[in-house]
Amino acid sequence: MKPFQSMPWHALIWRQWQQQIQERQLPHALLLTGLPGLGKRTLARALAYFVLCTNHQGQQSCGHCRSCHFIEAGFHPDLLTLEPEAEGKAIRVDQVREMTTQMQKSSQQGGYKVVLIWPAEALNINAANALLKTLEEPEPQTQFILVSDQPSSLPATLRSRCQIWPVAPPSLEEGEAWLKPQLSEEQQPLVLLKAAGGRPLAALKLATPEAEERRHLLGQVMESLVRGVNPIEQAVKLKALALPALLTSLQSWLADSLRYGLLGKEGVQDVRQLSLYRQLYELMGQRSLLNLEKELQAMHHQLHTNPNVDLFLESLLIRLTQELHHE
Ligand SMILES: [Zn+2]
């Protein structure tokens, strides 16, 4: 895919933006919202590139002008990205101030300047306030594009300064058509897409060797726990896996086990583990599955405190064993 293009399921939003641009009605601050895995950043970038391109080809960037060449080279002097310095960290007020100073300088290309901000919920309160001031008195020819998976955790004052654009998942057919050419022969696009709750980029992540390995290992360990094998021995097998991804997988399996028990096969998101779901539901029942799901959510929050991995895995598997075998 060219770096300048949005994704097929963004077409409606793209057309609406084009209309606004033609009528010179595109608001100076946009907020793209929606679940992770829908390509919001790709869409935001595509608009940024389009705004910066000086030789539009219809509704697309040209890919050839000086501005497009900058983008292809990986650096554009009039494009700034405001993001946390490391994943999980905040966007700080001095980053916003630095950006504001940059924006006050005239554009290198004599045209627009664009600021991408993601994830916008990472702005700490001082940073959000500083940004708010900039949005209230914007420099001319400046375009802000904010991206957020959790818009409700943004200050209402900040949200109210932006035009909000919810990005929706594609239809299953559209998602499948996009996914298929990116998978190997034996991978099933529709199965992966459903397992990812209809989110194409999340489905692509499920298709990676790391995700396959995680599913395989976790599946083995869960089968062993079902058979009553010592959880401490099993914990060692999971040591190499990243804890957040492990917990996310486990949470979705518990949720699917519950759906399987209540709704049958049709209600399940990820159909690759049906026999395990059946066993988990039979052994644990609704209440235990619900309780465990809540506990896993709480454990997810504990990850910020960098827990001891061995102890964390052991206590996780001991809890699962207790619920499986009513110990
Ligand atoms: Zn161009």
UniProtKB/TrEMBL annotation:
It comes from the Bacteria. Keywords: DNA replication, DNA-directed DNA polymerase, Nucleotidyltransferase, Transferase. Gene3D superfamilies: 1.20.272.10, P-loop containing nucleotide triphosphate hydrolases. Pfam families: DNA_pol3_delta2, DNApol3-delta_C. It catalyses: DNA(n) + a 2'-deoxyribonucleoside 5'-triphosphate = DNA(n+1) + diphosphate. The keyword Transferase applies. Its EC number is 2.7.7.7. Residues 212-321 form the DNA polymerase III delta subunit C-terminal domain. This is DNA polymerase III subunit delta'.
